[in-house]
Amino acid sequence: MEGLFEVPGGRPAATGGGSLSTGVHASAPLAVRMRPRTLDELVGQEQLRAPGSPLRQLIEEGRALSLLLWGPPGTGKTTLASIVSQQTDRRFVEVSAVSAGVKEVRAAIDSARAELVGQGRETVLFVDEVHRFSKAQQDALLPGVENRWVTLVAATTENPFFSVISPLLSRSLLLRLESLSDDDIRAVLDQALSDERGLSGEYAVDDDALDHLVRLAGGDARRSLTYLEAAAGAARARGETVIDLETTETAVDRAAVRYDRQGDQHYDVTSAFIKSVRGSDADAALHYLARMIEAGEDPRFIARRLIILASEDVGLADPTALTTAVAAAQAVQLIGMPEARLNLAQATIALAVAPKSNAVTTAIDAASADVRAGKIGPVPPHLRDAHYAGAKKLGHGSTYTYSHDEPYGIAQQQYPPDVVLDARYYQPTALGAEAAVKERWERIRRLVRGR
After folding, report:
1. How distant, in Å, are the alpha carbons of 91, 149, 181 from that of 116?
2. For 77, which of 28, 136, 155, 234 could close a Cys bridge (C-beta 3.0–4.6 Å)?
3. Distance between CA atoms of 424 and 252, rounded to whole angstroms?
4. Which residue(s) pair with 17 in the sheet?
């Protein structure tokens, strides 16, 4: 049936060739052959594997509990579904969110129900990319989850609070998976080089080549194994048993990017990126952006930096800058890489060519400095809350002037405490759209202060 994939015993499907002890054939991709078989073999995700954690209780005690796995690609979502199936001896069925419809979802649940009633065996129903399911398709999963006909394991790379219906979300244990660290990826590669399921010690990898594979993986274990397999194939074709940097570059068709996501280069390149945008050099900014992307930098980190920069260095000189940066961050979350590089590039260019102003930064810094210095006088009586019983007796709000009743919608009255009555925090520039803001703010301030 299209969109439905059943694997007896919860093991990955065979693909031809000699059979391994795991049930995976020798010709299967390296990433499939090296898939962890137990929770202890899983690399990373220590917060999920800790003794007494809900996931470990589910697996070790065999409880019927549906899971919603949220995390970037290659962090172990499919693997966890397989582990739950194998270690609890449940039947494993996968439904493709790309090709399956409501009919296929219902058929999978009906089959699981029949298996439970007839054979007494439970089923793990794995739904990858569940965010691609429509509301109707997600609704079709509910009977199986509510009646525990299936142990649902649904995986998503998108925020489930936006992409998964509330009834399904409330009936599932939400587990957040984090991107693997460089050390985690290195451990995955080392294991694949030595394990009999992997390359069985037939190849050695130079330090530079190994560093390159780690960089290109970008926290994605599956990607790292795919690249390692390609590099081993290239070395085999050359009759070599040592995988060097040149062989690795040729195999994955990418140049080595001299960038350590957790070292000095991370900070240097990020700093250069921000300063290039601030300095309005779009070409330089794009260069550093490309270096970060090609090195596997977390796109969410880049997007967050752009959001900060939009207020810190552009501000009201271009009021659309913050909207642009936030939209890019949302696009990263919704679309993911590699397509989201276009959204990051658009935001980078827009912020680089935008007029610049740091007036927002200096304004909040100056206000914070006064507060830290103790300039926090009492709120003027006419501005205090007057909605509770007894407020009028205290004189709260009695002389307040409602701004909308005044000409231009601006009332002349005192707003700041006496101690900062003459403070001028926001001092707009005459650059870009902030020039109009400057003119308007000066007029407003004179009206409000009566000067």
Report:
1. 10, 7, 40
2. 155
3. 57
4. none
Q: What is the pLDDT of residue 15?
A: 29
- Cα–Cα distance, 288 to 270 (Å, whole number): 7
Of 417 and 61, the structure prediction assigns the larger pLDDT to: 417
The two structure tokens encoding residue 405? 């009743």
CATH architecture designation of domain 4-176:
3-Layer(aba) Sandwich (3.40)
Q: Are 224 and 214 in contact (CB under 8 A)?
A: yes
The token pair at 186 is 């290195």
Task: Decide which of 268 and 399 is more confident.
Answer: 268
What's the one-letter identity of residue 439? E
Structure tokens given for 100 = 């399956």
Cite the residue boundaries of each domain of the chain with CATH code 1.10.8.60: 182-252
CATH number for the segment(s) 264-353: 1.20.272.10
Phi, psi of 125 (to 5 degrees): -100, 110
Q: For 397-435, give the DSSP string.
A: TTT---GGGSGGG------S-GGGTT-------SSTTHH
Phi, psi of 41 (to 5 degrees): -80, -15
Q: Where are the beta strands (DSSP E) in 112-255?
A: 123-128, 151-156, 173-176, 204-205, 242-243
Q: pLDDT tens digits for 407-451?
A: 778 778 777 888 888 888 888 888 888 888 888 888 888 888 876
Locate CATH 1.10.3710.10 in the chain: 360-449
List phi, psi (to 5°) of 262: -120, 15
> Which of the 8 DSSP states describes residue 311?
I
C-beta of residue 344 within 8 angstroms of C-beta of residue 309:
no
Report the percentage of the chain scoring pLDDT > 90.
22
Q: Which fold has domain 182-252?
A: Helicase, Ruva Protein; domain 3 (1.10.8)
CATH class of 360-449: mainly alpha
In this structure, of 207-216, 310-319, 392-401, the range with the lowest mean pLDDT score is: 392-401
Query: What is the Cα–Cα distance from 123 to 64, expressed in whole angstroms?
Result: 10
Contacts of 419 (CB under 8 A, 6+ apart): 375, 376, 377
